[in-house]
Amino acid sequence: MEEQAAQLPQAIDSILAGAGSLLPELLLAIFFLLLVTLDLFKSKTVKRLLPWVALTGLFSVLVLLVLGPQGIDGVQFLNLLRSDGIARYTGILFSLTGIFTILLSLQNPKIERRKQGEGRGEYYALILMLVLGLNLMAKSVNLLMVFLAIEVVSIASYILTLTLKEEKKAVEAGLKYVLYGTLSAGVMLYGMSFFYGLTGSLDYTLVSFWRSLLDASPLMVTVAAILVFAGFLFKISAAPFHFWTPEVYQGAPMPIVALFSTGPKMAGIIVIMRFVAAFADPTIAGAFADVQLFLGIAALATLAVGNFTALWQRTPRRLMAFSSVSHAGFLLMALLAFGSDYTVSVLFYMTVLLFMNFGIFLFLQMAEEDWQVHTLEDFKGMGTRVPFAGVMALLFLLSLTGLPPLAGFMGKLLVFSNVWEAYTANGQPMLLVLLVVGILLTGVALFYYIKIPYHLFLKRNQTAENLVISLSNKLLLVFFALPLLVLFFKPDLLLQWIQKLLA
Predict the structure, then answer these.
(1) How confident is the model over 399-444, as pLDDT tens digits?
(2) How far is CA 172 from CA 166, 259, 430, in A?
(3) If residue 75 lies in a helix (H) or strand (E), which one and from where to where?
(4) Beta bridge pairs of residue 142
């Protein structure tokens, strides 16, 4: 007891020394509490200000991350969190994700009607809470901290799915999400307990952690890894833990669907990236070939399930759900390119995915809320009646496919290049299979992404009803589309900045 008391001041000093690296998270927590407090007031003026308070908080964090000091690099808070270039850049992406979600929410009439009274502050506060959890996921280097961060994101996600709880499909989606999420969390925690029992440590970035596993039973290590990856793969909606995705995408509000398709997926990929970073050492990689094989099979299954299942979908929401699954497969593929410098490619891909997804989901929100489009066939002839929206949708969908001249092509090209580089370096057959399957399934993706433009421009509609797009929606569509064009012709603008942050 006396020994623990003697160590307490040292622990407190360590926490205070690393407090500077948590300024973005502290700022998010302050604005979260502010929103919850302001939501207690009945004044309509205060209620109208709540989304702008949330935007102020997220924009402040964004400015801090982009223009602020580098902070304290390295591991802080009793070896629980790491502040580095990856954490800083993904923090920027998460802040943008929160800002874009709020902007889409302000354009969503259902959310605005539903949130005019009680719960308005709660909705925007939960978005900040989710972004806070995403930041912690990206910084975590300790299995227990990873679990806590994932649960923060999950709890916020469960409640946000039920935003429109008066709708039956929202309640059904929320229930399924909670059940699947609870199961995956329990399985993941069970696997983490195995790792702790085998190594005596929860810090998976230490070489000693992996060296300890070399002395353990290979079967036990493989089982523990699969259990832990069950939670990680659930969070990024990768097969075979993707079953929640179409249901939640069908029932949640469109801005929340856009949030789920980007934020948690990006954070989950960063967690996996840090977890498998030790495999860059050929000695460790060779000892855990079974774990790499599992990840390779998961990537293949995710690519196949996402792309082929999307072919049979008849609603835009479910089509985009399986599109999200397929992109998780491409990101998983990128993480297996050991021996190549794939970090920059992954961050570039995630940045492009952020703009592609929010652009297409804004278009789908307009179609659903303003034009009453609920199936793919409902898009008939709308491309000629609202050509601006039709052209924007075509840009986003072609970029999601991975075709030039859009940044989605550059993202996939970088991933494929890293996989080929890794294959030529170590000759693993799995990498060649992933590369060939990824290229072929990019062609398959065109067949389901083109369904929406096909109905927009090539199907006729006799209705003469005038369709209107608000100026704010037009500006947002252009804002999401511009980076996709710029980053195709000038990808170095982003790649060099990412490399500078990672240096």
Answers:
(1) 999 999 999 999 999 999 999 999 998 888 999 999 999 999 999 9
(2) 11, 19, 39
(3) strand 74-76
(4) 203
Quick check: helix, strand or coil at residue 388?
Answer: helix
Q: Encode 155-216 in three state secondary structure.
A: HHHHHHHCCCCCCHHHHHHHHHHHHHHHHHHHHHHHHHHHHHHHHCCCECCCHHHHHHHHCC
Distances (CA, A) of 12 to 6, 24, 201, 311, 421: 11, 20, 21, 55, 45
42 burial (CB, 10 Å; 0-12 / 13-18 / 19+) is exposed
Q: Which helix (H) or strand (E) holds 81?
A: strand 81-83
pLDDT tens by residue, 331-379: 999 999 988 889 999 999 999 999 999 999 999 999 998 888 889 998 8
Consecutive H or E run containing 83: strand 81-83
Whether the Cβ atoms of residue 169 and residue 254 lie closer than 8 Å to each other: no
Report the distance separating Cα 430 and Cα 297, nearest Å.
9
Amino acid at 163: T
Q: Measure the CA dihedral 340/345/350/354, to 10°.
A: -170
| Tokens 């205070």 found at | 16
Q: Which amino acid is at 89?
A: Y
Q: Report pLDDT digits (tens) over 376-396.
A: 998 888 888 889 999 999 999
CA–CA dist 502, 82 (Å, integer):
13
Radius of gyration (Cα) for the chain, nearest Å? 23
Angle between helices 343-370 and 85-106 (to 10 degrees): 10
H/E run at residue 324? helix 316-335
Counting Cβ atoms within 10 Å, is residue 2 exposed (0-12), middle (13-18) or buried (19+)? exposed
- Block residue for tokens 């389901």: 448
| Overall size of the chain counted in residues | 503
Report the C-alpha gap between 116 and 123 in whole angstroms.
11
pTM of the model: 0.94
Query: How is residue 459 annotated by DSSP?
Result: S
- DSSP code at position 462: -
Give the domain ranges of the chain.
Answer: 276-503
pLDDT of residue 19: 61
Cβ 428 vs Cβ 355: under 8 Å: no
- What is the rounded CA–CA span in Å between residue 135 and residue 162? 23
